[in-house]
Design brief:
Elements (H helix, E strand, L loop, with lengths): L2 H4 L1 H4 L2 H15 L4 H19 L4 H13 L3 H12 L16 H5 L9 H16 L2 H10 L6 H14 L24 H20 L5 H8 L13 H13 L3 H8 L8 H14 L3 H10 L8 H13 L3 H11 L9 H9 L11
Length: 354
């Protein structure tokens, strides 16, 4: 299969990404605002008219630029263009890595109109590519369809993505009444996203501060969160902080939430460490062993398995695990596992001469 055909789903957005990067360069160079807007309009018109005239997202972005400047003829023309392309499917870029937006948030607002849903679909496409300013313009155009709490969740997340968090940021407090009637009712979901967004922002401002952990930790008390992978990043951050603080039972509780494919290995390792330091060695061995099934070499995991088997008197198994830990002789183990090795009483261990 020719390379150009194989990657056509990605190649068609390269020009849009280059256009966006040029726009960001203009902003960073502190050029005159009129000059920046003029350059952007020229680039967008060329993209829409010449490069990809059948791609609705370009026309929607151009529409938003015209709307910002209240240029009615341009608005009417671009609206006519994208409305005649509503039957065009958004190309799904199959090989694109999971975006920062999907990792940190991936919130889906409730939209009532077909236009609102269509704009959000385009907005999500731009978010996956990291074109946050363009995505914000589309979001601002449908903001009146959203509830106040939904606006906060998306707006605060966009500020974080754009690195525009103000020095003084007052996070919203979850205020919707939680329900016990279903596994994960909408009010619970919205409250959970408020906690997640607040935690993400506080973590960005100071990852060592405990304010972020207060928000992340609150997720554990909302019914149904454990079955939704969108909250796993925040919960895993909380779990590993509790592990660092030696609040092992709380860490173990949090690690139970890492269930999706993307985070299982991270959750297994963390859960195994919590069990290890709780001296529940047999259980720790199970989860360390599970974390070796993900087609990646984790030297520290194999080292922990060696230590556990030594402590359990399984010297042959310990030796086999140590061989895997030392597959790369240049590997440097974490201080944590080195400390555990130092604690071992060599005189009480039974070694067999080769």
């Amino acid at each position: 299969m020719p390379l150009t055909h194989k990657h056509m789903d990605a190649l068609f957005v390269i020009d849009l990404c280059e256009l966006y990067m040029d726009y960001m360069d203009d902003i960073k160079s502190a050029k005159d605002k009129c000059y920046i807007t003029e350059n952007l309009l020229k680039a967008l018109r060329h993209y829409c008219e010449e490069v990809n005239p059948k791609f609705p997202v370009g026309w929607m972005v151009l529409y938003c630029v015209y709307k910002k400047h209240d240029y009615r003829p341009g608005m009417n023309y671009t609206r006519w263009k994208y409305e005649n392309l509503t039957d065009q499917l958004f190309t799904d870029i199959i090989r694109i890595p999971k975006s920062r937006w999907e990792i940190f948030n991936n919130f889906q607002p409730s939209l009532k109109t077909e236009r609102g849903k269509y704009f959000w679909q385009a907005c999500e496409f731009l978010l996956k590519l990291g074109l946050y300013y363009f995505a914000r313009w589309l979001f601002d155009d449908i903001i009146n369809e959203l509830k106040k709490v939904e606006i906060y969740i998306v707006d605060a997340s966009l500020q974080l993505a754009e690195k525009l968090i103000p020095p003084v940021f007052a996070p919203e407090r979850p205020s919707l009444e939680e329900s016990e009637k279903s596994i994960f009712p909408k009010a619970n979901e919205l409250n959970a996203f408020v906690y997640l967004v607040n935690g993400n922002i506080e973590y960005y401002r100071d990852p060592d501060d405990l304010n972020a952990m207060k928000h992340y930790g609150s997720l554990l008390h909302i019914k149904g969160v454990g079955k939704d992978p969108r909250f796993e990043l925040g919960i895993l951050r909380y779990a590993y902080r509790m592990l660092e603080e030696k609040q092992l039972e709380e860490a173990l509780k949090a690690f139970q939430f890492a269930r999706s494919g993307d985070h299982r290995v991270i959750g297994y390792v963390g859960k195994a460490k919590a069990l290890y330091f709780l001296d529940r060695l047999e259980e720790a061995e199970i989860y360390f062993a599970k974390s070796t099934r993900f087609y990646m070499h984790l030297p520290n995991v194999w080292a922990y398995l060696a230590v556990i088997n030594l402590r359990l008197g399984q010297n042959y198994k310990a030796l086999e695990c140590w061989k895997y830990a030392r597959l790369d002789p240049d590997v440097i183990f974490d201080d944590e596992i080195l400390n555990e090795l130092e604690k071992l009483d060599i005189e009480t261990l039974f070694f067999v001469n080769a």
